[in-house]
Amino acid sequence: MVKNPVFIRMRSEIAAGTRGSSFGPLAVEWAAIKSGNTLFNDYPIIDLKDQNQSLYNNVDTPNAIRIEALCDVYKELSGAVQETLEKGKNFPVVISGDHANAGGTIAGIKTAFPDKRIGVVWIDAHGDLHTPYTTPSGNVHGMPVALSLGMDNQSNGINNLSEKEARLWNELKGFGGIQPKILPQDIVFFAVRSTEEPEDKLALEHGIKNYSVPELRYRGLDLCLKEAEQKLADCDLIYISFDVDSMDCDLISYGTGTPVQKGLDQQEATSIIQYFMNMDKTVTLEFVEINPLLDEKGNRMAETAFEVLDELLK
Question: What's the CA gap between 93 and 81, in Å, rounded?
């Protein structure tokens, strides 16, 4: 059982290309209520202000859509994570809308522990290594890893940024006065299987390890997890980011913004997270990209996410 979990609810979905992930945190709570589980009544919940009203605004930063409002999201989220971590043994469990929010969570951890190395366990169908210079969509939920690394990847760029886009991107990279917040050797990907050439080149250049689903099954989950633990051995802290699209959409549901086939099953996802949750240096867990508006099986994705979360916190 995690000591003193504190739930942090951030419903921002402004960095995604589809609508609905703002309902994800509540859909997970609905799943708990449906099952008669009191988890969200047993521990504190911090409900943060999102910037979803910015969805009505005209977009003037097409290579980093709504990045200005995202700066405000980061202030809210990083501040809550930092404050929670600084209160002794509290363990932040962030339940977010879209995955761009992870950059704010990482910023909060780094601000709380500026002299510590943060290891990142990134469980996701996507590498999220795009930048405004390389993105084909402009959706910032495809950028939080590169952002936290403080990288632009201009050598593989396809876009020319406006002054405003460049300024706001630099502001987000340097958020909290610390850049970079993580190092490429301190990242381990699990189940990443949908990337684009600029991301692949950046990952290859910096040696970011991805444990694909076939590798996990062929070599064995236990062996791969022990290897990943060794890779992160020099890190002082560990942050786990769990995007539900890491799971196989055909096995679970399509209730996420960018579903990808041939992913993890529920037990594999739970086992990976549990392995790192058992480590004393793991300080924060985040769930993202649950979208009940896209779920063709009712609320199945949120129900699965809750089952995973409940198993982890027992």
Answer: 9
pLDDT digits (tens, 9 = 90+) for 228-279: 999 999 999 999 999 999 999 999 999 999 999 999 999 999 999 999 999 9
Whether residue 156 contacts residue 197, with contact meaning beta carbons closer than 8 Å, is answered with yes
Tell me the angle at which helices 300-312 and 266-277 cross, rounded to the nearest 10 degrees.
30
Closest of 46, 61, 65 to residue 105, by C-alpha = 46
- Rounded CA-CA distance 243/274 in Å is 15
The per-residue pLDDT for 1 is 56
- Rounded to an integer, what is the distance from CA 244 to the centroid of its chain? 10
- Angstrom distance (rounded) from CA 19 to CA 10: 15
Looking at residue 114, the DSSP 8-state letter turns out to be: T
d(CA 175, CA 152): 15
**Backbone angles phi and psi of 287, in degrees to 5:** -110, 135
68: its two tokens: 């200005």
H or E element: which one contains 75? helix 67-85
Number of domains in the chain: 1
Which residue from 104, 99, 11 is spatially nearest to 55, judged by alpha carbons? 11
Give SS3 for 120. Answer: strand
CATH number at residue 136: 3.40.800.10
**Structural domain of 24:** 5-312
Coil, strand, or helix at residue 147?
helix
Residue 128, phi-psi category: left (phi > 0), alpha (psi -120 to 50), beta (remainder): left
Q: Which residues contact 240 (CB under 8 A, 6 or more apart)?
A: 121, 123, 273, 276, 277, 282, 284, 285, 286
Q: What share of the chain is helix, strand, coil (3-state, %, to 5)?
A: 45, 15, 40
**pTM > 0.90: yes or no:** yes
Structure tokens at 173: 């990279």
